């Protein structure tokens, strides 16, 4: 017996076998059970979602001698004759090749005759949008008032091409793309039934590559199994057959782009070409990778919108913090334009290389997006410089109090504040854009040693920490001050009410706490507050011993 493709062998034969279209299936079953069957149906949706399969099941169900809960029994003579294609009651027409007026006239003549067996004559017109205008006009009257024993089922992937006069005469059912989980579960069932050994990760990738089409998924699986016949189908095997690129390569490529490493980008592309990967597919997959990064940045709890494993999600979250939303949208725009160009290009590799150079060197593009990215880079450089300037006064503050940052020895000798006088006001603010009142001396407050160490650590690295946050969090935390909040806790003081409303969200604070724990091995939780009008933020924090030994003044203790 000749081999039958998987998508043909496993075509649904009852409503229970249909996957991912539960609302449509339930509606049709209820119509059959209650005998409220319409005369014209329009099935529309993307390819491989079950339109034709459901139409055939419906044609058998309305003529079945012993239906079971609205589904055909597939055992009676009527069901068997329809399933074998020998029945005169079910007519399938391909509108792509039978799109003329004369073909519709033949249908009009045929509907005058009642069925010889069964109750209904069913006409399934596939790709109905291919009919000519004259054919549509010829179908109108018959479609509106057919004989009681005639049912029309129209199927199309391009519903916008169908005249409104046809649409208004049909019950319309929109077939949605089948979810990744549903496709993967169906593939697992079929591989077990076919005794095919396959890795679960490979099935997930095939399901993802199908883009919501179960038929495409079965065709891709058939292709992969044929290439590695008799062997375990692994994830790498699936990538090799489908000409795809692993997500780890996308992560490396994205990191090189953000850091401006043009050579590394070109070398990675060279490896992709040598491995025989299809460049058009690479560009498409990379666009989706950056789309996922943008979703992770822009939406809270966006993990539900991204179909991938927890391991890949962890890498995705890490990459999402490397570039802001504006930069990501620029990357997506350039690669989207590239995707359109590759369709008709003879030198695809050259075009991809040019696009990568554009991404790593924004100065080569004179448009607004590139200019904004260059301005963002300049801002980051200015913040670095500002943070460097602030580190010096901060060290001076600690030295005035008799202590020094880690790795530095306390400095002795004359200097501002060395004799208990005032400390320069330049040392007071610890975030860019904040200035303390230059007319008042800073207050000195004693802290326990552990709290002071946490404060010193975070304040010294605050500018770097803020830059490491995601695009939204970075903008909210800009122009903030860190102050003590108690044992194991620091308080973030916001100057702007709008930034305060956005920055106090649990997602922002959670991201900040995870970063501090991962990079400084400190479990510090953060509180937030909004600074009052005219509030001084130039308080100097030292230990009780430092105040008692070095500074001769009344001691103020902060409540823990």
How are the elements arranged and paired?
Layout (H helix, E strand, L loop, with lengths): L5 H4 L12 H13 L5 E6 L5 H13 L13 H8 L5 E5 L6 H10 L10 E6 L6 H12 L5 E7 L7 H4 L3 E5 L4 H14 L6 H10 L4 H14 L7 H8 L4 H12 L3 H13 L4 H20 L11 H11 L4 H18 L5 H13 L7 H33 L43 E3 L2 H12 L1 H7 L2 H7 L2 E7 L2 E6 L2 H7 L2 H15 L4 E6 L9 E3 L1 H7 L5 E2 L3
Parallel strand pairs: 1-4, 1-5, 2-3, 3-4, 6-10, 6-11, 8-9
Antiparallel strand pairs: 7-8
Describe this structure in words.
Strands 2-3-4-1-5 form a five-stranded parallel sheet, covered by helices on one side. Strands 10-6-11 form a three-stranded parallel sheet. The chain has a three-stranded mixed sheet with strand order 7-8-9. The chain is an alpha/beta fold. It is 51% helix and 10% strand. Helix 12 (247-258) runs parallel beside helix 15 (310-320) and helix 14 (279-298) runs antiparallel to helix 16.
